[in-house]
Design goal:
This protein is of the alpha+beta class. The protein has 15 helices and 31 strands. It binds adenosine-5'-triphosphate and magnesium ion.
Length: 593
Amino acid sequence: MRYSKLLAPTLKETPADAVVVSHRLMLRAGYVRKLSAGIYTYLPLAQRTFTKVANIIREELNRAGAQELTMPAVQPAELWQESGRWEQYGAELLRFKDRKGNDFVIGPTHEEVITALVRDEVKSYKQLPLNLYQIQTKFRDEVRPRFGIMRGREFVMKDAYSFHVDDADAHKEYDNMFRAYTRIFSRCGLRFRAVEADTGSIGGNRSHEFQVLADSGEDAIVFTVDAAGKPTYAANVELAPVAAAEHNEKPELPCSVVDTPKKKTIEEVAAFLGVPPARVLKGVLFDVDGKPVLAMCLGDRDINEVKLKKVLGAKDVRLLLDEEAKAAGLKPGFVGPLNLPAAQASHPSVMLAVDHGVKGLAGLVCGANAWDKHHVQVAWGRDLIVADDCLADLTTAKAGDRCGKNSDVYQAARGIEVGHVFFLGTKYSTAMKATFQGEDKAEHPYVMGCYGIGVTRTAAAAIEQNHDDDGIRWPAPIAPFHVSLVALGVDKETMDLAEKLEGALEGLGIEVLFDDRDERPGVKFKDNDLIGNPVRLAVGGKSLKEGVVEVKLRSETKEQLRKVPINEAVHVVAALVNGLLADARKAADDAAV
Ligand code: ATP
Ligand code: MG
């Protein structure tokens, strides 16, 4: 491909509204252009990368036994009414009417359509299991579209749906998809973690998010590794179990009440009493399915609503408003576990939930349930007596905590969710009366799984993880081109040689972006660095007289430049490209569990 013909309009200035690197670089290097909020045109460079990501996904899913199809993007409202999501989905669902006044949506996801298809076409257990996928444009009217194509309103997703006779078979497919995803992201050349994720309102089931590790990621994750550095467990911080601490402190002084005028926050109380924040109990008041709950943890930690909700088996958890707390006889800012107000006609009793990190400690400070007063020298077991069923893992995990699964110490990282595997059970098949005839001749709802990958987001995440001050540093398997071939002049000799090299490389299946523009070498190097193809081959100028060309990886410095005799150039470049591609394939094989 000739650079002079390529539509890749580069920008000198960094666009003001682009806050993350991938968005900035994709605009600057001419990969995307915005049409409307969260809606982008993918220019040829981006399209090449997306095609590569999509093809890796296709190869691995086909290999894992899934079948590709394409469903309509426009879906009738009736299906969404059947599943119940017409009401539940909210404003992210783009709804419209056709000329006859019928309601439609633009698909944000396709559980309804696929369930209806399989309901109509698959009748017997003999036709199961089935895993069907598509790669298609989705629309979600995100509240805050941002970060360019990372959280767009229109984006490309691979969505797969599997159908099974029972839970066991669906779990088998879940594991199969988990392995396929591991291979897909390894083959894309990405560093990632599969993390346990919350199953949200579906509840009680299995879900893993595949997170590309990048400091700019929206998600906080923790993980443990074995001696070889291989991850042994990873989870979203909201979900990651924190092991119970084993304290056994002996109280030294009796518990008493002290004045703490206007000292409400942990920091204020700690500073006023001269104790570390970790010794002050943090009390957070929640409304849990309409009842007040006081959740407590040490002052240097945070109560996690996801865990609280799970532990209490609750439907709805929200913070209690100050007025509501006062109506329940509580004193916001000074609440504590020792003398909670008893139930009265006007309100139920306040339930206590204590994080297990508090167990066994003495010398604690907590609110005294009176304005401007705190208890000090509170000791576990003497003053603070908590029933076993009120004690649980309630805080958000952080680096340095011990993992509740394997007792190893957590490390923290930030991630970008690029994929999601989900055990759905019979949520959709039951709601939509989608059944098959089992071996027992009875009708059963299909047991389902769903599996998504953001194709466009994966490309953006790759940039977040792989860039420097000069631009993108694509992992070779998803770079738009393997090689940037830079002609250092446009004289006949240079251009002839460059063309010859281009032809020879392309003959070996290597994709070349041939920078044939009449520009200074400095400009060409800059633009090609910005675009980020993994190998640079520079031809012409002084080196031509010496009979050599210059070869450098995008990830290498100027000092690492190789001077290669012209007749070895094709061989050296091909070996570099193939080496990079082979590394990613090897990573996929190694990662396969
Ligand atoms: P998020 O929590 O980021 O909103 P989600 O849980 O809504 O993601 P899923 O419904 O599981 O996402 O969608 C599957 C995949 O589609 C995600 O893993 C992600 O890679 C991609 N995706 C979801 N929303 C967007 C978006 N607005 N822009 C680009 N990709 C997206
Ligand atoms: Mg979302």
